[in-house]
Design goal:
With 190 residues, the chain is mostly beta strands. The chain has one domain: Porin, CATH 2.40.160. An 8-stranded antiparallel beta barrel has the order 1-2-3-5-6-7-8-9. The radius of gyration is 18 Å and the shape is elongated. It starts with 5 loop residues before the first helix and ends with a strand. It is found in: Cell outer membrane. Pfam families: OMP_b-brl. It comes from Undibacterium rugosum. This is Outer membrane beta-barrel protein.
Length: 190
């Protein structure tokens, strides 16, 4: 069992906060979103590989079309008898993560904009594997690329409705699993 390294998470958080705090003259934004994530984990039975996900976003505009943002993701537990975990009974997997990404916007008009984002993501997974005689918990962590795209609608000049599609990888069973996230949320600039 490999313990979760907190150094990449602390480093990513420190860099994110430093960049955000150094941009006093730039417009900053925060947001919250809810949605679903789906995993490519192979499952034998009782599969629940698509679960609810909450995202908190903080970012800073670096110009009219570019932003730097960080997102915190917290997902519900995926459940099932997963192949690569060698589970004899149902297991549960929880995912948490933080990412730092550059975002490029293409304004369609005064109300709508498309965006794409690319960056790095630190993901932490916890696998709980109950068995008849004993139970075990294994933690995995990974730093992998994240890419995404979405649409923003301006409700007011400083409040936006935002839809995201994200693709990332996580280590949840000793090997990489693809995670696809879809979310809808609100974002406010200040």
């Amino acid at each position: 069992m490999r313990p979760i390294s907190v150094i990449p998470l602390q480093l990513l958080l420190t860099v994110s906060l430093t960049v955000l705090s150094s941009s006093v003259a730039a417009q900053s934004y925060v947001g919250i979103a809810a949605g679903k994530i789906s995993s490519s984990l192979q499952c034998k039975n009782n599969c629940q590989t698509s679960v609810a996900n909450i995202k908190l976003t903080a970012g800073v505009d670096l110009g009219s079309n570019w932003s730097l943002e960080s997102q915190l993701h917290i997902a519900s537990n995926m459940k099932g008898t997963f192949d690569r975990i060698n589970a004899k009974t149902d297991s549960s997997i929880s995912h948490k993560g933080i990412d730092l990404a550059a975002l490029c916007r293409w304004r369609l008009n005064d109300k709508f904009a498309l965006f794409s984002r690319t960056g790095i993501a630190f993901t932490s997974s916890e696998v709980k594997n109950p068995a008849a005689d004993s139970s075990s918990t294994t933690r995995y962590s990974a730093v992998k690329p994240v890419i995404g795209a979405g649409l923003v609608y301006a409700i007011t000049p400083l409040t936006y409705l935002r839809g995201d599609l994200d693709l990332r990888q996580a280590r949840s069973d000793g090997s990489n699993s693809n995670i696809t996230g879809l979310s809808l949320g609100i974002q406010s600039a200040f």
